């Protein structure tokens, strides 16, 4: 790679394409081009597969303990280079450095560390049966594909490659064409740490390159993060070759604020779950249900804190806590949802417009927006917006709010704010969501499995069970008795 051109990263090094085809990556905070990226053409794709096959042969034969040692070295390198990697993420995504330097690299490293530690713990079972016995081996799948979204580029690449590599697989990763650098930086870290060439290759391009990965017969599994609609296409394509799939998709998650909640904590949850990463987080609680009796108090604090505590601007400034949306196109999409909200009768309590902060006047910023007077059937309360747009709704009783919270085809996350311990667990047990937070919102440690119910996903990432998604069981039956046959 030169400063202004990023190539595919195959077999441990940059590989130029033959077609010469490139696309541009734009800094969302300035609207200026950052660099060009080479598309993975036929030549690159073929090399990616050949190299991953060789990489898999070496890596799957490497003792698990050794794989763990190498991956732990990668974790150390990620942490040592936290600030420069965070910078890459800030330039590509437009998110504040304040977040990227605290969260993005750290949570990526944590997940690789967690799976590296688990790598040597994979055991099979054995059982005696009628004097014979069998045992099982957990074996890697082969070459896996990772396809990532643009909101947490490096973290997503770590969350997918961590368990895949720990289990002995190779991975070909396609980052979003809007944020392709983080994955290449990770590939470099892996090589520096001693991961063999070909075990983690990065290919660039749009959906068509992703589609190629999902249909290739040498690829045994696809781990995808993106929109529900794209997820459907990925699953359809993967079904041709009966690939295993993991899908981390979108959401329209509810936050339930009961009258006995700590109001300031509830406001913190609502703001974290709508304005962190300028609202571009899959688990966001974009439907905030507030019990009628505390509505006024809740709104006073929410509006006061939204007005006074959000600092939008140049994301490289450590004081900025609210960044730019990923692209002009996405900004227009978010603004079109805001317009729909107004047209359908919701009230803009704050925000609702594009902003041009002095320190980043050409960036794609939308103000932190809160809608009130919302009803469940409004477009803004049904569809994922993926921007800083919160809809506040009110409710009277517990059963009613559970029913309304569940009335969505999606089921990624949910939050419950209450100081009544019994209510908290009772409500959570009835919520149709793969991730539930009680008096918290958004935390996602490596140890905790995450994924969606309903249309929000298939399978899980993180947590011990994810390792099973990257291995297959081989049963070995051993005859100890003399083998007889009727022939
Ligand atoms: P997209 O679905 O648009 O894209 C995701 C990835 O899929 C990109 O790399 C994209 O390539 C690629 N892609 C596009 N078409 C195809 C295809 N036909 N076959 C294979 N791959 C394809 O999602 P976004 O990038 O817009 O990300 C935002 C979405 O991701 C939101 O819905 C959000 O909720 C979800 N998300 C879910 C998370 C979770 O853990 N549940 C976490 C983070 C985000 P390209 O963009 O380069 O064209």
UniProtKB/TrEMBL annotation:
Residues 18-476 form the Aldehyde dehydrogenase domain. InterPro entries: Ald_DH/histidinol_DH, Ald_DH_C, Ald_DH_CS_CYS, Ald_DH_CS_GLU, Ald_DH_N, Aldehyde_DH_dom. GO terms for molecular function: betaine-aldehyde dehydrogenase (NAD+) activity. It comes from the Bacteria. Its EC number is 1.2.1.8. Keywords: Oxidoreductase. Transmembrane segments: none annotated. It is an enzyme of class 1 (oxidoreductase). The active site is at 248. NCBIfam families: PRK13252.1. Belongs to the aldehyde dehydrogenase family. This is Betaine-aldehyde dehydrogenase. It comes from Alteromonas salexigens. The gene is betB.
